[in-house]
């Protein structure tokens, strides 16, 4: 299965719309727009078979109607907790989704960014929408810090070699914040030195691995000793919820200042 990230909403939200295809059939994740998706499908002679939605925000779903109009047989999968009427197959924790013989997903409920957020996961790949980003995580926009920290700890249990695909290209800013909060993380320093983002170019393959994220993404590391100590100095208590929330608040302040 080929996996490419098409830049979308480039001037505002810097999304990726992920397309999985085997040179005949295609599956699209979080289409916040449709024009570039339709162009790509046309150019490569692909038939859209399914649309996967991680959560109901418009920058992940505004392209759905136009895509279904162009490919009426495409099936729309999305969270059972979403209110979107375009979702045909409502998905929740542990559901299995079979898109092709060689493309199956397990659904993980990962609320926190929103209440309805799900991930599409199999042994090789993870589509986690706005929950985790490369070197960062989504904001709390409807869910709670407790939900979010639980979801992050759930994703942290997945294998290191999992290909990591998120819905936005915020790597550069996220790495700057990561360095601020974990200045002594040698793996992070290495990642920053090797990072070469070419957004808005089409992204081929995974953005990183879950293993790389575990070593360098502070939101997967809020309970490691040095970072935990910094968060406690900023008022966090010992709980995952409080540590996560303190780190998230710190990032919100950082984003406002930068
Ligand atoms: Zn979102």
UniProtKB/TrEMBL annotation:
Residues 14-168 form the Metallo-beta-lactamase domain. Pathway: Secondary metabolite metabolism; methylglyoxal degradation; (R)-lactate from methylglyoxal: step 2/2. Coiled coil: none annotated. It is an enzyme of class 3 (hydrolase). Keywords: Hydrolase, Metal-binding, Zinc. GO terms for molecular function: hydroxyacylglutathione hydrolase activity. The keyword Metal-binding applies. Its cofactor is Zn(2+). InterPro entries: Clx_II_MBL, Glyoxalase_II_hydrolase, HAGH_C, Hydroxyacylglutathione_Hdrlase, Metallo-B-lactamas, RibonucZ/Hydroxyglut_hydro. Its EC number is 3.1.2.6. Zn(2+) 1 binds at residues 55, 57, 113, 130. Pfam families: HAGH_C (PF16123), Lactamase_B (PF00753). Gene3D superfamilies: Ribonuclease Z/Hydroxyacylglutathione hydrolase-like. It catalyses: an S-(2-hydroxyacyl)glutathione + H2O = a 2-hydroxy carboxylate + glutathione + H(+). Binds 2 Zn(2+) ions per subunit. Zn(2+) 2 binds at residues 59-60, 130, 168. Thiolesterase that catalyzes the hydrolysis of S-D-lactoyl-glutathione to form glutathione and D-lactic acid. Monomer. Belongs to the metallo-beta-lactamase superfamily. Glyoxalase II family. This is Hydroxyacylglutathione hydrolase. It comes from Thiomicrorhabdus lithotrophica. The gene is gloB.
């Amino acid at each position: 299965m080929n996996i490419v990230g098409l830049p979308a909403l480039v001037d505002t939200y810097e999304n990726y719309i992920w397309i999985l295809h085997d040179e005949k059939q295609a599956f699209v994740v979080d289409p916040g727009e449709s024009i570039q998706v339709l162009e790509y499908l046309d150019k490569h002679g692909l038939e859209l078979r399914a649309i996967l939605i991680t959560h109901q925000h418009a920058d992940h779903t505004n392209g759905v109607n136009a895509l279904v109009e162009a490919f009426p047989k495409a099936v729309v999968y999305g969270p059972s907790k979403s209110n979107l009427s375009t979702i045909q197959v409502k998905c929740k924790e542990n559901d299995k989704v079979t898109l092709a013989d060689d493309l199956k997903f397990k659904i993980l409920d990962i609320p926190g960014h929103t209440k309805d957020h799900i991930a599409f996961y199999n042994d090789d790949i993870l589509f986690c929408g706005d929950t985790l980003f490369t070197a960062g995580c989504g904001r709390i926009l409807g869910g709670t810090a407790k939900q979010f920290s639980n979801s992050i700890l759930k994703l942290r249990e997945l294998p290191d070699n999992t290909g990591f695909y998120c819905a936005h290209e915020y790597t550069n800013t996220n790495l700057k914040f990561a360095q601020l909060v974990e200045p002594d993380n040698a793996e992070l320093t290495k990642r920053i030195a090797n990072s070469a983002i070419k957004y808005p170019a089409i992204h081929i393959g995974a953005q990183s691995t879950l293993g790389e994220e575990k070593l360098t993404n502070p939101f997967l590391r809020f309970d490691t000793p040095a970072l935990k100590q910094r968060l406690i100095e900023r008022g966090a208590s010992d709980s995952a919820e409080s540590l996560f929330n303190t780190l998230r608040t710190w990032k919100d302040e950082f984003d406002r200042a930068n």
